[in-house]
Amino acid sequence: MSFLQLDQLTKRYGDQVAVDRLTLSVQQGEFVSLLGPSGCGKTTTLQMVAGFVAPSAGAIALAGRDLIAVKPSRRGLGVVFQSYALFPHMTAAQNVAFGLEMQGVGRAERDKRVADALALVGLAGLADRHPRRLSGGQQQRVALARALVIRPHMLLLDEPLSNLDAKLREEMQIELRAIQRTVGTTTILVTHDQAEAMALSDRIVIMNQGRVEQIAAPQEAYERPATAFVASFLGKTNELAGSAAGEGGDAIVSIGPARWICPRAPSGPILAAVRPEKIAFAAPAADRLDGVVRTRIFQGNHWLYRVATSAGEVFVIRQNAGDAMPAEGDTVALVWRAEDMTVRSA
User: Fold this and answer.
1) 20 to 30 A Cα–Cα from 301, which one of 74, 113, 127, 225?
2) Domains of the chain by residue range
3) Residue 83: its pLDDT value, please?
4) Region 237-345: CATH code
5) Alpha carbon distance 205, 209 (integer Å)
């Protein structure tokens, strides 16, 4: 039995449907991210679970208990907001202790749990500092400690890292995942950052216009996108027009002069999605997709190429291994494996 169950969860604002019949099962201890562009319904979904927004239809159950009938303050959930929402006049320790005070936890027990929570997030020596004397990353950790100290049934994170710079955000992703694994708290994260969702999650719920496009482990969603939206949203991808001949078994997929044998490919006009890092350069040949390098950009650990071909513009990512790389204006052939592309009817 799932720990958190959302069943046909729906939210309407007049004629606008913000969340459309979302169904999701989350296991205890799992880290699940709601991922999608602005306005896709991910934050509204989180707010319905937290109790800040009332659903228009559907059900929410936590450990078999109907959550919709429970007030937000009694749901036993820890919430970390994008703004952290720390009390500026309180020290880090006082901020963390606030929820325990509201629960009536005794002073000795409260002090111990606050100290443990601050140590967990690496702030044991900063208990007496006010938020204005803490960096953005430290404030984020205080907010996380405040959410965890009440020992919540579940942790809800609403874009908690979006205010941090890129380097600190990457560091906090690593720490957040390590803390979640240490504590084992079931966690739901709302984010629009694809890399963040893939780095942190056991599973990703990819949403678009209020609906779920795909629910899958990060690697599965990236390697085998269920829809064109997932392929385009979850990292860079190339979508190339071609054709397939054959029914029921292996089909011959053609993109320009290049050919692949693909099992279960639909017959007729197709669109093939292939990730830029799956494409390699080879010597031009009659059965390969030739092109001309229009742009190459050095990005530290890899090169990003834009190649003009008869099938359209193709982006290629090649790791910077110190090898000689094609220059702008060079003619190249592009090759990739059949299993590295996803084929669907055009």
Assistant:
1) 225
2) 4-232, 237-345
3) 78
4) 2.40.50.100
5) 13
